[in-house]
Structures are given as structure tokens and as C-alpha cells.
Design brief:
Elements: H1 3-13, E1 18-19, H2 24-36, E2 41-45, H3 51-62, E3 67-71, H4 76-85, E4 89-92, H5 99-106, E5 109-112, H6 118-139, H7 146-158
Parallel strand pairs: 1-2, 2-3, 4-5
Helix pairs in contact: 2-3, 4-5
Length: 172
């Protein structure tokens, strides 16, 4: 399956079960139940003991009808092991240098997060604190919780890349 086909499959599924359990056996049983319920996409996080072997086992067990990926991929060695195990997509909560190239070269999809914009988070926290206090004093303390929530929603809609982030999209 090509990375584009994997992406289309992920979008079509709309809900991707992310399995993170105490053992590989529990995770395998959960995946089996989800498969019986009609799910065809699974993300196995690398925080699950034996996750890489489990990815290979699920890929073999479910065959071509299912898409099995790896989550919480934090370094290139883990990414390579996941690709070798048959993971069709890799999910990383942070930017891992070389992960996009590795996925591209292996013909896999990669979803790379950006939880590394600390400056933007600090700026956002300070701005929300100031706005929260101004709203409580000058507008009404009744709306104190609603105004920051509305601001967060507007920022997510207008600047999904974050306050200081750049729009960056790569096809892998």
C-alpha cells in the first residue's frame, strides 16, 4: 500500500484506535476485538512492551485488509525496526531528524508532530493569562472561563501551526 493509499485509508476510517496497553497479549486481544467490530486500522504505540514484534504479528494475522502502524516513534532506530516489522505508517509526537526521509525511502506514511515549539507555548500561556485577567476585570468574571476557550478555538482555526510555527507540509 502506498503512503497516499495509507493516508486515504486513515482519513476514510475516521477513527484510528491507538493501542497502548500493559502487555503485547492484552494489545493483541484488544486489536482482535476491534477487528471484529469492523476496524481496519491500528496504531501500536512503542510504549507497549514488545510493540515491534506485535506489529509484525498483527500484520501477519490481519493480512492486507488491515493497516497497522507504529506510534510514539521517538528515534530513527525505532523507526527502522518498525518499518522492518511491517508498520505501514509511523507516528511521532515530535520532530525526529531523518524520519520523513526514512519513511519516504521505505514507501511508508509518516505523521510527524511538532510538540517542540516551547517559545510559542510560553507566549500563548502568558497571553491567555493576561487576557483572562483583563476579561475578568473589564468584561465580566462570569465569562472568565469562556473567553480563553474561545481564543484557543480561534487560534487553532486561524493558526493551526501555532503562534510562532511555520506552515510546513511534506509528502512522504
Amino acid at each position: 500500500m502506498t503512503p497516499r493509499a495509507v493516508r486515504d485509508h486513515l482519513v476514510a476510517q475516521r477513527v484510528v484506535p491507538v493501542l497502548r496497553l500493559k502487555s503485547a497479549d492484552e494489545t493483541e486481544r484488544a486489536a482482535g476485538c476491534l477487528r471484529e467490530a469492523g476496524f481496519t486500522t491500528f496504531e501500536i504505540t512503542l510504549t507497549t512492551p514488545g510493540a515491534i514484534a506485535l506489529i509484525a504479528a498483527l500484520k501477519s494475522k490481519f493480512g492486507a485488509g488491515a493497516v497497522v502502524g507504529a506510534g510514539t516513534v521517538l528515534d530513527l532506530d525505532a523507526a527502522r525496526a518498525c518499518v522492518d516489522a511491517g508498520a505501514q505508517f509511523l507516528v511521532s509526537p515530535c520532530v525526529v531528524t531523518g524520519l520523513a526521509a526514512l519513511a519516504h525511502d521505505a514507501g511508508r506514511a509518516a505523521l510527524i508532530g511538532g510538540f517542540n515549539q516551547v517559545r510559542g507555548a510560553i507566549l500563548g500561556g502568558l497571553l491567555l493569562g493576561v487576557i483572562d485577567n483583563f476579561c475578568a476585570v473589564y468584561i465580566s468574571s462570569n465569562y472568565r472561563m469562556a473567553i480563553p476557550l474561545l481564543i484557543l478555538i480561534v487560534v487553532i482555526l486561524v493558526r493551526p501551526q501555532g503562534l510562532l510555527g511555520r506552515v510546513e507540509e511534506r509528502t512522504v
